[in-house]
Amino acid sequence: MSLVHLHGKSSGRITASDRRNVIAALDIGSSKISCLIAEVLQSKHQLPNGNEHKALRILGLGHQASRGVRGGAIVDVDEVERAIRLSVDAAERMSQKTISEVYVNVSGGRPQSNCYRGQCAVQGNVVAPRDVDAVIASAAAHISPGRRTVLHMAPIQYQLDDANGISAPLGMHGETLRVDLGVVTVESSQLQNLGLAIERAHLSVADYVIAPHAAGKAVLVEDETVLGAILIEMGGATTGISIFHEGNLVFADSIPVGGVHVTSDIARGLQTSIAHAERMKTLWGSALGSVADDMEMLAVPLLGERGIDTVKKVPRATLMGIIRPRVDEIFEMVCDRLERCPVAHLGGQRFVLSGGASQLTGIREVASLWFGRQVRLGNPVPTAGMPEAARNPGFSVALGLLTYGLDPNRHRVVPSQVALNASHTRQSYVKRVGRWIADSL
């Protein structure tokens, strides 16, 4: 195992009081691995529900080219550990803090979303908290993840007698309460491999968050999550889909195609290097063609050539002709997943694009053609201290992880014991080994 030895690290250890005010996020993607460290700022203003308003101030940022990750899954633990160490060290140096736990995104693991229905009789004909807990427990009793792990659970909607579409049944009169419980699961091996790489970098996992959920926390405004929105998170090797309704994540999915595949198509089609293909995509690439593309010529260095034949000229229209089919494939697959989704209607008419691959010129217009609705590009909400270079959709997931960590209990809308029973496999490698040793004594 190859280790990265880091010298001169800051001695600004986080004290017990600092742990409540400093949070860290680790975005492990197929194109880059980034770490954000932020300070939680307390405000004198209160939210309508009585809770304190909290804000973030970014203290440190570090990122490295991703190695050892393919299609959102870890294929080389040593390489991932090394990239994690380097990105975390850069963030710690910038922030003058040393972190011990991080919120981590899950990009792979073939996520699946299912809906489970529960029912219970209302005691006293007025819905009380115990009735809500009971009906959620009734729905959760049907969950059988097998070799998969429950990552997120949230009620989609309630039904009280004949009244449908209820979001908050507390205090209402009725006899029978029903709930549709949305559950997102991923492959347990994906979380175990993520946990292994993180623990080998001497960090612990505060919580796992599926990537399109984290991106939604960074780019969606509150009204969008309440009224309904569909977020398309276009990453390097995967494209995540999430649907929000009444402030909760009600559906999540992922397709194994992203921006890296567009780059690979360019490299193969033009017989050039991956690095130059990425450069061409960034500087001249577009998902929409124009009449001037045939007249504009681009210089393409040929892969492995020497001498006078090292560069060839191609019209920009050739580049557009390579990019557009792959973009169409991505949105076609997204449309197919949404057509099979039973809760797609809860997303309303709102589509939002995010992720690094969403920065391709013309991609919003192409998405509008496929979805038949207006689509907006979701940039992360401005955050104090965020470096200018990171204020783009490529850092949406990392910033969303921090936003999630501001109030993680807000997302646990199911009874704690129910969540514990349903997610019994979500234990870190160290905890499982420690429990095995304790039981053996």
Low-confidence regions: 1-17, 415-420, 422-441
Q: Note the gap between the termini.
A: 30 Å
Oligomerization category of the chains in this entry: single chain
Integer average pLDDT: 85
Largest beta sheet: strand ordering: 3-2-1-6-11
The rough form would be described as globular
The strand count comes to 18
Q: How is the CATH topology of the largest domain named?
A: Nucleotidyltransferase, domain 5
Which CATH class of the largest domain? Alpha Beta
Description:
This protein is α+β, with helices and mostly antiparallel strands and 441 residues long. The protein folds into 3 domains: 1-110 and 186-221 and 381-441, ATPase, nucleotide binding domain (Nucleotidyltransferase, domain 5); 112-185, 2-Layer Sandwich (Dna Ligase, domain 1); 224-380, Nucleotidyltransferase, domain 5 (2-Layer Sandwich), CATH 3.30.420.40. The chain has helices at 16-19, 77-95, 129-140, 188-200, 211-219, 222-227, 259-270, 274-283, 316-339, 363-371, 396-406, 416-422, 429-440; strands at 22-28, 32-46, 52-65, 69-70, 73-74, 101-106, 112-121, 148-160, 163-166, 176-187, 204-210, 229-234, 239-245, 248-255, 297-301, 311-315, 351-354, 375-377. Strands 3-2-1-6-11 form a 5-stranded mixed sheet, sandwiched between helices. A 5-stranded mixed sheet has the order 14-13-12-17-18, with helices on both faces. Strands 7-10-8-9 form a 4-stranded antiparallel sheet. Helix 2 crosses helix 4 (188-200), helix 5 crosses helix 11 (396-406) and helix 9 (316-339) packs parallel to helix 10. It starts with 15 loop residues before the first helix and ends with a helix. Mean pLDDT is 85; it is low at 1-17, 415-420 and 422-441.
